[in-house]
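Troubleshooting: if your tokenizer reports a length mismatch, compare your output against this known-good record of 94 residues.
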Amino acid sequence: MKTHVLAMTTLLSAVMPVAASDEAVTPRQIREGKVTACSSYGSKCYTAKLVRSPVGWKMRLNGGTLIDCGVTCQDTLRRETIDFWEDQRERATD
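Known-good structure output:
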């Protein structure tokens, strides 16, 4: 039983996102309460509300979904919204 619990704990820690540190958010983004990211493939931009949670910074998307900030909130927002499908295509061809 103890090995089963240990295995599950190890598995969960591997798939759970790492909480974003304060370096993931710039002071300006904190003041404004939002993050804006623009596409690497065109001129589209997306803005999300910045939310402080007990485990780190998150962004609230237009539909209400909360996503964790990665290394930077801006890069995570770009990859998870406006450049999502382009990034998927690039990964598929690599």
